[in-house]
Amino acid sequence: MSSELSNEQNIRVVLVDDHGIFRSGLRADLSEDLVIVGEAGSVESAIEVIERERPNVVLLDVHLPGGRGGGGAEVLAGCAHLLGNTKFLALSVSDSAQDVVTVIRAGARGYVTKSISGTEISDAVRRVAGGDAVFSPRLAGFVLDAFGSSSVAEVMGIDEELDLLSDRELQVMRLIARGYSYKEVAKELFISVKTVESHVSNVLRKLQLSNRHELTRWAVDRKIL
Amino acid sequence: MESSEQRTSIVRSDSGLIAGVCGGLAAHLGFPVSYVRFGFVALTALGGVGVLLYAWLWVFTPSAEESKADQLRSWGTSRRTLAEEMGRVQQGIPSPKEMTAKLASWRETLMGTGLLLIAVLALAQWLGLNIRWDLIWPAMGIVAGVLLAWLQIDGQRLSGDSKSRAMVLGRLILGLILAIGGLLAILSGTVSTSDLIGGMWAALAIIAGAVVVLLPWGARLWRDYLAERSSRQAAAQRADFAAHLHDSVLQTLAVIQKRSDDPAAVRTLARVQERELRAWLYETEDLDEEDVVVELQSEADNIEKLMLRDVDVIAVGHAKGFDGQQALVAASREAMMNAAKHAEGKISVYLECNKELVEIFIRDRGSGFDVEAIEEDRHGVRESIIGRMERAGGKAVIRSSETGTEVALSMPRSSEQEEQNNE
Q1: Quick one: which of B294, B314, B304 has its CA closest to B274?
Q2: Which of A197, B111, B146, B358 is deepest in the core (most CB within 10 A)?
Q3: The CATH homologous superfamily of the domain defined by A2-132
Q4: Given an 8 Å threshold on Cβ–Cβ distance, is B317 in contact with A137?
Q5: Do B317 and A145 touch (CB under 8 A)?
């Protein structure tokens, strides 16, 4: 799916990061079929550029100056009406659960750390543009930590669909946390890459919408909420 | 004499008989302490001027401790040379025991002299001299009260608990009573008792009026003081930050510049530094050092540093004190080491602790090897991973293909065991 899209038309990308050095590095690293149509270094300018350019994908730094100090999550909130067509991929130097979960809950379609290679990030952009979610091993680890294993949930009598990860979803998350690519996950579980993608998207949706009290407690423990 | 060295400002010395004023003044003027002490005694004999001067200096010069604290506060951000650093380190090595013993003997001498003086006065009166006891006793009361109260102020910083605080308060009140009583006694010689009582009411009224008028002002001073103190704390924190960045980040950047022709080393250095800085910045929760997560992370850090390779550790859950934890961590280390030695690319480590099991997966992206082909002679994998895990009651599974190798380690845990072990 993602490869079809990239063949048909170039993916238009906006870079949002307050470090010029990082932006220029990323510009050089991204593959040819990704067209960078705009850059921004603060919350206000980011919202403005995204409104104007309506890109397919926004590479969004979690920590941004300006606005009310909300960083990337504030940009997401400001562009909430565009979320259908514009996909956000969060980038961060920090692995802290707070940063990751905040932007994901605000609507980002994925999360990668800045140490990721150029090829990997280009793939991630294409994947996000195609409507899929991008989970780094770290994010998968957070999800597993927050949602726990299915057996625990059963014991606690939680049956709300949103508050549970299916066994398959847990398996996928575990493999991603172990460093498997989507392709490797598919091979391991004898399913198609597309199925893996849909599992990951489901997990993302649950992560964004769940009111699961473990998630809340987990977030409170880490002073996120 | 002054040309080479700037004269230091007066700082009351640590090792004074009373408050260290003489010692501080001696250090400031460059005279021996005993001369200064003698000077004060002589001035005191001249109608008590020495006592007043001593009191004045006591109030308005900082103690050594205070000035040291000031120095420490301003120390953090300023650049310093090696010599200064050394100096600072050496300053921190006093010989307190010896000093206090010496001081105690001096204090005894001082008290003895005072008692002797009283005896001499008594003798003089017996011999027929008119000694004004009605002035001497109150004056001594005032001095004693002041000493009692002021010595507390100097000592106060050290004490923290409520018991010693109550004692401080008690002494303060005793000092106050002594001093006020002394003053009243002196006055009662010249003023009649009824006048004195009336005057006391007047004094109380004046004090009450002054308090009412000055209270807001005092409160503001207090607030300003609090604000000042918190900004000082912030400054100290910034200094701490600067020091840390200097010690770690700048050093690493220097090394990176030197090794810029070796991309792998640069990458690893950057990564190790990143991890360290990240830990320093974000890790607020106190992790238990015996936790398997922490142990695994530190093994991974070691391998990163040793082999200059990236090791990514993702951990879910916590566990400690289960049987076989040691074996599990040691086998993980071995597996990470093998991955670092034989495979290219990133090494992914995933640790999951659930109720029954602790599992660790170590994955590399090397070209793989035939697991069946490693026979008894390959001590590394057979013995240090599989054998070690099995002996400790766990399991090790190695899967390898041309796209990479994954070592899966699992160790059962039972909560009763852990509770026993953790007690």
Answers
A1: B304
A2: B358
A3: Response regulator (3.40.50.2300)
A4: no
A5: yes
